[in-house]
Design brief:
This protein is mainly beta. The chain is 5% helix and 46% strand. It has one domain: Immunoglobulins (Immunoglobulin-like), CATH 2.60.40.10. It contains one helix and ten strands; from the N terminus they run βββββαβββββ. Strands 1, 3, 4, 5, 6, 7, 8 and 9 form an eight-stranded antiparallel β-sheet that branches. The chain has a two-stranded parallel ribbon with strand order 2-10. The chain is globular, with a radius of gyration of 15 Å. It starts with a strand and ends in a 6-residue tail after the last strand.
C-alpha cells in the first residue's frame, strides 16, 4: 500500500488529518473501503529509545480518531483533531495513522509534528 499524509498540529484550531492517494500497489487501484484511524502521541526521546515505535503516551485521549473516506476522491481519508486539544506550543507530537483494508492488510503512517498556532510558519 502507498499513501501520502498531510498533517500539522495547530493550537486552538480544528486540525484536519488527511491521507491521500491510498493505493494497492499490486493492483494499482485506489483503496476506498478501508478503516482508517489516527492516534496522537506525545513525542519523547526516551520512549523511542527504550520501548520503540508506538510506545509513547497517548495525548489528551486522542486515540483511534476515525478518518472517513471522501467520496469519489481516489483514496482520500480525512479526520479531525478538535480545537479543544490542549497542545503545548513547541512540543512535538506523533500522528500515528493506521489503515486496515477489508482484506486485513495494515499500513501504518507516522508523522512527527510540532505544535504551532495556525498561520505560524514552520521551521
Amino acid at each position: 500500500m502507498a499513501a501520502d499524509a498531510k498533517i500539522g498540529v495547530y493550537i486552538g484550531s480544528d486540525t484536519d488529518v488527511i491521507i491521500t492517494g491510498l493505493k494497492d500497489e499490486t493492483t494499482d487501484t485506489h483503496i476506498n473501503d478501508a478503516t482508517v484511524t489516527c492516534t496522537v502521541r506525545i513525542y519523547t526521546e526516551s520512549a523511542m529509545n527504550t520501548s520503540g515505535e508506538g510506545a509513547e503516551a497517548v495525548f489528551d485521549s486522542l486515540t483511534a480518531l476515525a478518518m472517513t473516506y471522501e467520496t469519489a476522491s481516489n483514496g482520500k481519508y480525512v479526520g479531525l483533531i478538535p480545537d479543544t486539544a490542549a497542545f503545548v506550543p513547541g512540543t512535538k507530537y506523533w500522528l500515528d495513522i493506521t489503515v486496515t483494508t477489508t482484506g486485513g492488510t495494515v499500513l501504518r503512517v507516522r508523522k512527527l509534528s510540532e505544535a504551532t498556532f495556525y498561520g505560524t510558519k514552520r521551521r
